[in-house]
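Continuing from the previous page of notes. For each protein in this section, the sequence appears first, followed by its structure tokens. Read the first protein now.
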Amino acid sequence: MAKQQAKGESAREVTRDVLRQAGEPLHAKEVATRVLASGRCRSLSGKTPEASIAALLAVGSKPGGPFKRVGKGIYAVADDATGPANGKERKQQAKAGA
């Protein structure tokens, strides 16, 4: 099983890349379409990959997550390409600045 996971990237990584490349917020359906078209994520081979991406975006848009919700079903990357890589680093950076 480990060999199958090594072949593709995580859905979160690919979704983050898709949103960064877009340069603007996208609807969850459009994000899912672009993630699937990229062929980089093998873990989305189920019956409802669009629902999986929508759930990933919804959960990832909670405070400290990698995404932000800017409208109903519309998401963007929470940090820019040069920002901290994860929520823990963002929290530490916020504490240091406060």
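Done with the first. The second protein uses the same format. Note its length before scrolling.
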Amino acid sequence: MVQPEELGSMFEPVGISEIQERLYRLILQHPGVALTSIAEVASLPRRHVQEAARSLEKMGLVSRPAGTRRGYSAAPPEVAVEALILRRQEELERCRLAAIELGRQSREVAQSLNPLEVVEVVTGREAVARRFEHMLRTAKHDVMVLTKPPFAVALDESESNERSLMERGVRARGITDPDALALPGFLTRVERLVAAGEEIRISPVPMKLAVVDHRVGLVPLRMDEPGPKGGLVLHPSPLLDGLIGLFEMVWERAVPVPQPVDGEGGTSRHLLSQVDERLLLLLGAGLKDAAIARQLGVGASTVLRRVRRMMGALSAQTRFQLGVQAALGGWITRED
């Protein structure tokens, strides 16, 4: 005999109400019993039980001999529920095909849009945040982001959103302005994301930008506020193509953040300690000694001493030469 707890709430996703579920359980346990008796046992109005029974009969969950008023018998759950699941899958597939057709129609409309309709204006901080979250949730292939302070989203929340992308197999690429590296703990956050699979590079960026799947972009109206009061949503157009080209151009020239090594005493590609590699990265990003010291958690004198040691090892006369010699000598590499 099937127990109620074995069925639980699994019927809800296939359109079975609570009353219908209770009735089906009782018929499973008491096949052939009159609906009047079931109504008494279930403490339900007889009219509700009769309506639920008719609905279950239409769904194929219960039946009774034709031309009689005998009680109902329940179909085996594994058979009846499977039929409901298949029916729901067919309905969902029709919805999916309808969405594809609507997308095709919308693209046709987009090709004939007035140029002013290619750009959608979103007003209000919450509206911009919702649109950005929706873009990330619907990303299927890749996400490209140009970012710089001030940030509209808390860093821990932003990190969670970025990890979710990579867990879904979405390629995430970000270019971060060097100003962000002056924020306490920001480099450590970047290294965690790189270790998780995100591709991050450091370079001055001219604007904030997010592009998802090369099909939609988002640009805040103001760059100097942590929470944008409005934003521009860019649909497929030469404008969006141009901003994607801007991202790729900055990406090619930006400094890659390498995969972090294990342990402070380890070496990067057997040549640099983790601290020295981070130091070179921050130098390449243009940070001053004081900002580098804050990121590394050391004193400014320690930064200067390490820089001089590496310059001596590579016979570099300037810090620029240090970066060039480190790259040419394989101390640091550029990942494509």
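What the second structure shows: The CA atoms of residues 160 and 193 lie 10 Å apart. Confidence is low (pLDDT under 50) at residues 1-8, 263-270. We return to this in next week's lecture.
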